[in-house]
Each structure stands twice: as structure tokens, then as C-alpha cells.
């Protein structure tokens, strides 16, 4: 049975996208000093601790034992495998190309939801997704970023991360209806942390336990804060909203992330948009408005489930 929400699902989804956009800007800077797998461990550890504290403080009910294995498996997939691949790819690919690749996630979710969940793909939803995808391509300045295709490994790593997240959203859609969102995110991020720690202990080229000796305490604290934003808060909001909207609609909100990234780059780095990027930003905002109507449309939600 579903419980009432304090805020509409659209507000939760946009807030999650804002946090992801903010943390992505910081992640790109952090990767200049911290290896990808090491950064993932530093970010997931405080996030998991915070979430378990929230579970205890709110007395969240534990799900039946039959749900634990699929929840843990999904946690290994995301944030474990997915963000391992994402940070590895982000270390060698520009932010513009990375953003463009992540724009493929809503379309992947749409296809997987239709294939695996029998979700009905309406022409209106498809139009919204294509409009948002076009906007992301323009904001990401794809023409200026095509030179980064000389790093095919980074491209493949990011595409793998996108596909993992798409599977995560689709398979989580039914589980989250029956499990408290706080407990879900806490358990899954603990599983993802276990995956990342295992990689760290085997000393891959993308990070090892020895890295901690050379990371300044201030940088570790910054990475920990980004982990709380990127993983704890954003995933909590996203999972809470996913209980109320179809997977394809929830995934379509990812097209909003570049808007926040561009705004933060302007405020903190002094970067400005070109005219074509302003057109893309307008397309994303238009698709977001249309998505909000879809999210609040109970008739659509019933048909899509």
C-alpha cells in the first residue's frame, strides 16, 4: 500500500536532479586528485552511515527476507557497478560528452520498461523524451565535444554506467512499492559500498587502499559531503518519487540535470551559454513542464503500470 507524500513526485524528482547536477560538477574536479574507485568509497561510506542512522531514527520497517537479495543485487548494480563505470569514464571524457551519453538513459528506461514491465509507451511521452534529449544534446554542445571520441574506453565505460542505471530503475519500480524508500536506499548503498571496497582492496589501476595516505583531509571532507548529496539525499528523493510514477516518466527527469550543471558552472566558474545552448535549455525546461503534467496525470500512471 502506498503512503501519502509530503511533496508532489515532480518536486522530489527535480530536487534529486538538482543534487545530482551539483555533485557532478564537484566530482569532475575531485577526480583530478582522487582515483575513481577511491572517490566512490569516500562518498558511499558517509552516505551509507547517514542512511542507516535515518533508518534507526525513523524506525523504518525492514522488508520481508524475500526482498533482501533483489535489493542487495540492485545495490551492487547501482550505485556499485554503475558509478564505478561512471567515475572511470568521467575521468577521461569531457563533461559535455558525458552529459550527452547520460541523456540516453531515459530512452533506455523507456525501452526496458516496455519490454520487461509491459509499460505502454504513449506518443506524448515519446515526444517529451525526444524534446528533452534534443535539449540535452544542445546544452552539452555535442558539436564542440565530438573531439573527445578519441577516448573510446571512456565512452564505453559511461555507456555501461547508463545501461546499469536504466536496468536499476526498471527493476526497482515494483520493489519500491512494497519497501520503505529509506531502508531501500540504505541497504542498496551498503551493497554498493561493499562492491567498491572489494575493488579497492584488489588494487586496480583505478584506485587502491594506498591512495588514502596522499589525500589531504580537507579534500576527503569535500568528497564526503558530495557523497551525502549525490548518493544519500538524491537517491532517497528519487526512490521516494519512484513509488508514485512510472519508471519511464521518472527517468525522463534526468534531462533536467544539465540545467543545474550549467547554472552552477556559470555561478562558480564564470562560464556562459552560447545561443544554441540557450535553445537547448529552453527545450529541456519545456519538456520538464510537460513531464510534470504527465507525472500528475493519474490516468497515465495507471495505464503505464
Provide an overview of this structure.
Helix 5 crosses helix 8. It is globular and about 50 Å long. It is 76% helix and 0% strand. It is an all-alpha fold and 305 residues long. It contains 14 helices and no strands. The longest helix has 26 residues.
The major beta sheet can be summarized as: none
Query: Structural class of the secondary structure composition?
Result: mainly alpha
* Topology pattern, helix = H, strand = E: HHHHHHHHHHHHHH
Calculate the mean pLDDT score and round it. Answer: 81
As a percent range, the share of helical residues equals: over 70%
Unreliable residue runs: 298-305
Percentage beta strand: under 5%
Rg measurement, Å: 19 Å
Would you report the number of β strands?
0
Global geometry: globular
Question: What is the count of helical runs?
Answer: 14
User: First CA to last CA: what distance?
Assistant: 15 Å
Tags for this entry?
305 residues, mainly alpha, 14 helices, disordered C terminus
Explain the layout of strands and helices.
Layout (H helix, E strand, L loop, with lengths): L8 H22 L5 H23 L6 H26 L4 H8 L2 H13 L5 H17 L2 H4 L6 H24 L5 H21 L15 H26 L4 H6 L4 H13 L5 H21 L2 H7 L1
Helix pairs in contact: 1-10, 1-12, 2-3, 2-9, 2-10, 3-8, 3-9, 4-8, 5-8, 6-13, 9-10
